[in-house]
Write a structure and sequence with these properties.
By secondary structure, this protein is mainly β. The protein is about 15% helix and about 50% strand. The chain has a single domain, classed as Calycin beta-barrel core domain (Lipocalin, Beta Barrel). One of its GO terms (cellular component) is extracellular exosome.
């Protein structure tokens, strides 16, 4: 039910790169497919330095429903991905954990979501100990 097109609406993270470059955030679209009936193939489309880029990732299913594993490059680059909350038709809130670091992302089927969904996202952000000063919203244009 997560398949299809999504837009990255918001993100909460203590990532220093994100904090330093938050003024350069670009509209970001994601297409989710399920190539083998279990894992998620994620194609992220975003603009960087005036050029559109596609980033492809493969989320492997974990033992628990709604949990996935993203293997990165190098030692210790495993990322646990958890679907925190979704209605499949308008929004999805996902947790990304690498070691002790946790990020929360809000995806919408449209470029903007309702205030009620934004409130849900912010509750999830606070629940993992993040705050509004490390919460970023992506532009709806581009």
């Amino acid at each position: 039910q997560l398949t299809g097109r999504w837009f990255l609406v918001g993100m909460a993270s203590r990532c220093t790169y994100l904090a330093e470059h938050s003024h350069q955030l670009e509209a970001t679209a994601v297409v989710v497919t399920i190539p083998d009936g279990q894992s998620l193939a994620i194609s992220t489309f975003r603009k960087l330095d005036g050029i559109c880029w596609e980033i492809r990732q493969h989320y492997l299913p974990a033992q628990v429903h709604g949990r996935f594993l993203l293997n990165g490059r190098g030692y210790g680059s495993k990322v646990d991905v958890v679907v925190g909350e979704t209605d499949h038709s308008s929004y999805a809130i996902l947790y990304y954990q690498k070691g002790q670091s946790v990020s929360v992302k809000l995806y919408g089927r449209t470029r903007q979501v309702s205030d009620a969904i934004t409130d849900k996202f912010e509750k999830h952000v606070r629940a993992v100990g993040l705050s509004e000063d490390v919460t970023y919203y992506f532009p709806t244009y581009g």
